[in-house]
Amino acid sequence: MSAMDIADNISQIRQQIAAACVKCDRNPGNIRLVAVSKKKPATDIEAAIAAGQTLFGESYVQECVAKIDEVESAAEWHFIGGLQSNKVKYLAGKVTMIHSVDRLSLAEEINRQWGKLDSSVDILIQVNLGEEQTKSGTTADELLKLVSQVARLQHLRIKGLMALPPWEEDPEAARPYFRQLRVLAAQVEALGLPNVEMEELSMGMSHDFEAAVEEGATMVRIGTAIFGAR
Ligand SMILES: *Cc1c(COP(=O)(O)O)cnc(C)c1O
């Protein structure tokens, strides 16, 4: 994909987000675009940065760390993929948010690694709404218990929820899942736990982000529509 195509795609998506906001009376300033750059080279990321996009999401630890080192322009990095505990140490201090925390053992390791840096990191709890075997995420039933356990860890802050609904051709099929995530966030909020703020709903990808925005997404994670097919 050329730098110009990447810039055009980003501006197109920003317009679509703005249009979705008009439909549901939201402020586009409250929605962050996470450009998902997995499997794409650092040069594509530099092109996006030149077009004003500075927040990127990566899904694979080694690739993520390599690109953070390689990209020279200032950028912010979120980790959005499935995460093994033994790899958390490579991300420590390099990413500002982890969207994919789905079990206590992983949260404990994140806490340990950021603790070593005397720092802390924002996290989202990933919920597997479709209860698909192949996807990570805690179940809706176990969410409240997991949040209350993770909330005790000092070197992370729970900022919201993330979901990756079952893929369907029709973007409208994802809407009930987006709605469910928002309801779950309200249930978590109602617990009133210290160290837990349900500010963020990370939901919506290339083919369904408009529905996600209409249902309350604060972060949309978009790869293909910016950088092309992987
Ligand atoms: C790859 C990926 C995305 C982006 O998907 P696209 O369909 O390319 O926009 C979003 N979220 C997660 C967790 C991903 O792994």
Overall description:
It is a single chain. With 230 residues, the protein is an alpha/beta fold. Helix content is 40%, strand content 19%. It contains nine helices and eight strands. The chain has helices at 3-24, 42-50, 61-70, 88-91, 104-116, 143-150, 175-191, 209-214, 224-227; strands at 32-36, 55-58, 76-79, 97-101, 121-127, 156-163, 196-202, 219-222. It has an eight-stranded parallel β-sheet. The longest helix is centred in the first third of the chain and has 22 residues, at 3-24. The chain is globular and about 45 Å long. The termini are close together. The relative contact order is 0.16. The protein binds pyridoxal-5'-phosphate. Pyridoxal-5'-phosphate binds at residues 36, 38, 59, 80-81, 164, 205-206, 221-225. Residues 36, 38, 59, 80-81, 164, 205-206, 221-225 line the site of pyridoxal-5'-phosphate.
What's the structural blueprint in terms of helices and strands?
Elements (H helix, E strand, L loop, with lengths): L2 H22 L7 E5 L5 H9 L4 E4 L2 H10 L5 E4 L8 H4 L5 E5 L2 H13 L4 E7 L15 H8 L5 E8 L11 H17 L4 E7 L6 H6 L4 E4 L1 H4 L3
Parallel strand pairs: 1-2, 1-8, 2-3, 3-4, 4-5, 5-6, 6-7
The chain binds pyridoxal-5'-phosphate.
Pyridoxal-5'-phosphate binds next to strand 8 and helix 9.
